[in-house]
Amino acid sequence: MAETHAEDQDQEQYGVLLYYKYADMPDLDELVAFYESNCNSLGLLGRVRLSPQGVNVTVGGKLSLLEKHIAAVMSNVLFEGTDFKLATCDRPVNDNVAKECGFTALSIRVVQVNCDQFFLA
């Protein structure tokens, strides 16, 4: 029975989550700590860009874990009204495909740019 449960977890649907939020971010160190802790504990991979003017996030992982990430983000009043774009997808067929899509590691960076440049990065 343990094998069946493990197989079910391997078959769980994957997804990609994209969201951004224009807002004053008063404590970037706190946000970095949140994203490091939350994304690593959920096994999410992708890109998180933080700026004093907002956030821009594209991460991938198991769909159920992406939904947990959304719930955690929504619990912060800074993200009130954020439009989360969540799409289902197949797990990358190999490491080359994952690398092309940017989902081989978690990259969290604080960037110092204006909003027009920030969301093009």
UniProtKB/TrEMBL annotation:
Residues 14-111 form the tRNA uridine(34) hydroxylase N-terminal domain. Gene3D superfamilies: 3.30.70.100. Signal peptide: none annotated. Pfam families: UPF0176_N. Transmembrane segments: none annotated. InterPro entries: TrhO, TRHO_N. It comes from the Eukaryota. This is Rhodanese-like domain-containing protein 6. It comes from Morella rubra (Chinese bayberry).
